[in-house]
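Why run this: before we spend reagent on co-expression, it is cheaper to look at a predicted model of the complex and decide which construct boundaries make sense. The entries below are exactly what would go into the expression plan.
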Amino acid sequence: MAAAGPYLAGLLDTVCPMHALISATGHIQHAGPTLRKLFPGDEVLGQRFLELFEIKRPGHGGTMAGLRRLTGRKLHLRMRHGPRTEAKGVLVALPEEEAGIGPSGGALINLSFGISVVEAIRDFGLTGGDFAATDLTIEMLYLIEAKTAAMEASRLLNLRLQGAKIAAEEQAYTDTLTGLKNRRALDHLLERLVMSEQDFALIHLDLDYFKAVNDTLGHAAGDHVLREVARAMVQQTRSDDILVRTGGDEFVLVLSRLTDAARVHEIASRLIAQLEEPVVFNGDVCRISASAGSTLSCRYPRPGLDLDRMMEDADTALYAAKAAGRGCHVSFDPPMQGKGATGCRGKSAV
Amino acid sequence: MHGMINRAIERFVRDTYGRDAWGLITARAELDFAEFEAMLSYDDHVTEDVLGAACDVLNKPREALLEDIGTYLVSHPNVEALRRLLRFGGVDFHEFLHSLDDLPERARLAVPDLTLPDMELREHGATTYSLICRGAHPGFGHVITGLLRTMADDYGALVLLEHKGRRETAEIIEVHLLTSAHAEGRAFELSVGAA
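The model came back. Tokens follow.
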């Protein structure tokens, strides 16, 4: 320690506890207490600095002269042993003459952990006392923890708010009488279907003779019938199909992944048959039927599937079904535009 | 009052006296919700209502309740984060006391809209201090008293604490530091989850 002088060493230990004083031959003559902690059980004094640390940048040629030329530059270092911790550093070449401060012709290097500080503190069991009083490391660790805790609180709040939002949307998108989706949900869900480029069948379905039930047996009977209609729809479709009550006795069914008109016709006809089964309410028998018109998304050019066009075509098919005597399903067929299909009752018009 | 503070009162009651007690308190305070959100703000009167109801339901004087909350905040494992954050203030209790001046600023760094009372530490000789808490909400000094008592244990320091009452907006706590290394104290590693 004679070369550095105990006074200088003590001063450096307090002000920058992660420093090293290096002799003209590149050997460590003195190391700050925190730097020594990085090499537990190893005596760092007398070792070559470059054998303990690799200076990744800037280049220095591995010689003392090369190192001394790095004076004032920002050094990127890595420990050669242990967890190979990264560090930042700065070096100052010490005077050549014997009477100068520190080891003549040597260098002073001060290190810090930079961004790897969190791991380094864990790996080397460092404490608050290992950092200079002016060092902001402890404040940084405090901030990391405080912000992490605050972020976690925010994340939990967001989760709860999101849950509440989904519940509210679920309510806003549901037809409360039947439990089916409502028109608002339909727009939203169709948009999503179009974006995901999935094919689907679109069925417009109107109940027939429903008004008569409402008028003669009352609204309670009408509501009961509507709930039975919804139940039949759920039974006749799959769980990922979209069932929507768009108006009093009007429904839209979106059957996902369907591209076959015959299959759609089969499902629609089966549904209509089930809807024609009499429903008993308070001893009264309610009889309704339904007309349906459908079209398939695979018949329309993509991208930018024209939903309005599809809706119109499904409506055209629906009116064709009504014109054909109700109680049946009609698939949209381009030539039918402007004309009505005929003779639908009892037959299947595909 | 910030949700963090309301939530702290809630956590204290639930972790110490159970959910049923908390239910009685929210009913008595006429809250129309069951849990505080830490990251939202509430009207000041809500906090007062809850504290009043807690005193009634738990049959505890207000000062004792507030001091218990202070103790809870730095000793219960469910709120370990706060104790850790406070331990960053200093390597021993003496340094920790001196870090209290920065506490409101530190809190604001983490949660920008969280306002804590201003704190000023005065040193009277080597082992006697007074801590002055200035804030709009009377009683904060009692929370701090409980918190300091527990943090002293945490550091292994032996202290005598006395809440000297409130003058205008200031509450004064007298601290006698008998010895700063009386016992082992609880371990504190700078990094989370260190062995």
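DSSP finds eleven helices and 13 strands in chain A. The CA atoms of residues 278 and 287 of chain A lie 5 Å apart. Bring this page to Monday's planning discussion.
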